[in-house]
Design brief:
- One of its GO terms (molecular function) is acyltransferase activity.
- Keywords: Acyltransferase, Transferase.
- It comes from Pseudonocardia sediminis.
- This is Polyhydroxyalkanoate synthase.
- An 11-stranded mixed sheet has the order 15-14-13-12-7-6-4-5-2-1-17, with helices on both faces. Strands 3-16 form a two-stranded antiparallel ribbon.
- It is built from 20 helices and 17 strands.
- The chain starts with 11 loop residues before the first helix and ends with a helix.
- The longest helix is centred in the first third of the chain and has 25 residues, at about 75-100.
- It is of the alpha/beta class and about 550 residues long.
- Strand 6 (about 285-290), helix 10 (about 295-305) and strand 7 form a beta-alpha-beta unit.
- The chain has 2 domains: about 20-100 and about 110-130, no CATH class; about 190-555, Alpha/Beta hydrolase fold, catalytic domain (Rossmann fold).
- The chain is globular, with a radius of gyration of 25 Å.
- Helix content is about 40%, strand content about 10%.
């Protein structure tokens, strides 16, 4: 960030334009007239070639925005694409010139500062995204005729409120898929219900199950069913069919009366769930599977258990698109002080942040999602999920929970902390990733616009034990949806050895030494978990046990009410 003047709470437009950083960019370019002339002349020449049809400019083969053949075969579309590419290239070149110390004539001229450069690159990303002709020009493919058991849903209008903190209509009140049938449909029951959470136990679908159960810890703002999205598109369903005992937490939607629920309260809820799971399974250990920000809770729980000498209760940990160190984000994609201050003030006034507001208070810190926070994930465009699951995913992206004021304040503090010098505590014990020595499995998203996959590598590196890291295509939601029976064209990368301190020189070294494997990482995860989940035993004849009885059928009352 470039300073207080660019990050005040005067509104999203001012943060987007960054007037101070823009002014400093203009001053920097004024000191480089030859660079400006060179770039300008090059742009004019390139645009002339585009107009004459002689330009050879083409997108990178990995640029999937222009993968449709019409961008090359249709003369008008080709010219629109080439105009965009040469213009975006010229703007990026000017910014490169502004950050260099050489003014293009051999003189040494001070370049744009690192913070200003980060802000201007963020703005350039947004502007490039807005002017890209691929987005408005592409019409969505017609949906195939729905199968009898796979209805196609019309997603809610993704426009949302127009201002950063306009509460508007609650997005999760819109109509959509039916819980228990179309989403969150894996059979099971609620076996524990408290004001903080419902604990779901899923019905075994095999004759034998592994000794050690898996507890899914969901995100804090979104609903839990990303892990149980839709039939045949559910990681929970896949784990159950792979002989794992699976439990999952479901958060209620807090109101103003719950304004005091902080990080401690959510960590305590996970600990209560761990107690219930081990009580039902009659085994002392459990594996934690954290989804997105649920991974933060899983790490905090394990850190607390380690601090009190009970780390043996966790058999293994799985982190799906979790980033423990926010400083590992792309430059310019960190928390915007003005946005978080405005959100904090709003939470203090109302007791909670409405789901869209809570999400927007975080998305204002990044580029792409700042413009299109509800954009369909890349997985949808590549056939990895069906049309019905696509509608379910869009419904999930809008199905947001309120965030209590105390939790929002704790998360801001946690995101602002340096992972190497943590200052956050939970239940009186410090949150220290290096205390987490149990085997870990981490999935990083290769194409996420908010967090680079290298932030996932940084998370794996912070852990105190060996971590098997997987790099999957898609953003933080799409990378998690790779059902094996639809993954014939999919692949993922996995390290040749676990990430530990000193195992790799950095993320580039990991990427170079990693191996590409065909198919879905879901199968890799179940195999990895199976090796750490004890022996096989007969599946329990009924759900619950030891005075914890089924209360309601899955997906429970907190999702359906």
């Amino acid at each position: 960030m470039s300073g207080r003047d660019d990050t005040g709470s005067t509104g999203g437009l001012r943060r987007l334009l960054a007037p101070r950083a823009t002014a400093r960019l203009a001053v920097s370019m004024a000191g480089r007239p030859l660079s400006v002339l060179r770039r300008g002349a090059g742009l004019v020449a390139d645009l002339g070639a585009v107009g004459l049809g002689t330009s050879t400019v083409a997108p990178h083969r990995a640029d999937e925005r222009f993968a449709e053949p019409g961008w090359l075969t249709d003369p008008m579309r080709r010219r629109a694409m080439q105009t965009y590419l040469v213009t975006a290239g010229a703007l990026a070149g000017l910014l490169d010139d502004a950050t260099a110390r050489d003014d293009g004539a051999g003189a040494c001229t001070p370049g744009l500062g690192a913070d200003d450069e980060a802000r201007m690159r963020e703005i350039l990303t947004i502007v490039s995204d807005l002017i890209c002709p691929a987005r408005p020009a592409e019409a969505p493919a017609p949906a195939p005729p729905p199968a009898v058991d796979a209805p196609v849903f019309t997603p809610p209008d993704p426009a949302g409120p127009s201002t950063p903190f306009d509460t508007g209509t609650r997005r999760h009140d819109v109509a959509g898929p039916v819980p228990g049938r179309d989403i969150a449909a894996t059979p099971g029951a609620v076996v524990l219900r408290t004001p903080m959470c419902e604990l779901l136990q899923y019905l075994p679908q095999t004759d034998q199950v592994h000794d050690v159960a898996v507890l899914v810890v969901p995100p804090l703002v979104h609903r839990y069913y990303l892990a149980d999205l839709a039939p045949r598109h559910s990681l929970v369903e896949h784990l159950v069919r792979s002989r794992h005992q699976v439990f999952a937490l479901s958060w209620p939607d807090p109101g103003p009366a719950e304004r005091g629920r902080d990080l401690d309260a959510y960590v305590a809820a996970v600990l209560d769930a761990v107690d219930a799971c081990t009580r039902i399974t009659r085994r002392p250990r459990i594996a934690l599977l954290g989804v997105r920000t649920g991974g933060l809770l899983a790490a905090a729980v394990q850190s607390h258990l380690t601090a009190i000498g009970s780390d043996d209760r966790i058999a293994a940990s799985v982190y799906l698109a979790t980033v423990l160190d926010q400083s590992a984000a792309l430059p310019g994609f960190r928390l915007d002080p003005g946005a978080t201050r405005a959100a904090t003030d709003l939470a203090a006034r109302d007791g909670v942040l409405e789901g869209p507001v809570a999400a927007r208070s975080w998305t204002w810190r990044n580029g792409g999602e700042q413009v299109r926070p509800y954009e369909v994930t890349p997985a949808c465009a590549h056939g990895q999920i069906s049309e019905s699951a696509r509608g379910a995913l869009q419904h999930w992206s809008a199905d947001l929970l309120r965030m209590p004021a105390a939790l929002h304040a704790d998360l801001v503090a946690l995101a602002s902390a340096d992972a190497d010098h943590p200052g956050t505590t939970v239940l009186g014990t410090p949150v220290e990733p290096r205390l987490l020595t149990r085997d870990a499995y981490l999935v990083a998203a290769a194409d996420d616009p908010v967090q680079r996959w290298t932030a996932g590598y940084r998370t794996a590196e912070l852990l105190g034990g060996p971590c098997r890291m997987v790099l999957a295509g898609g953003d933080q939601a799409g990378a998690l949806l790779v059902p094996p029976d639809r993954a014939s064209a999919a692949s993922f990368r996995v390290g040749t050895e676990p990430v530990t301190t000193g195992a790799y020189s950095g993320p580039d070294d990991w990427l170079e030494r990693s191996r590409e494997r065909p198919g879905s990482w879901w199968d890799d995860l179940t195999e990895w978990l199976g090796a750490r989940s004890g022996t096989l035993r007969d599946a329990p004849p009924e759900l619950g046990g030891r005075r914890l009885h089924p209360l309601f059928p899955a997906p429970g009352t907190y999702l359906t009410r």
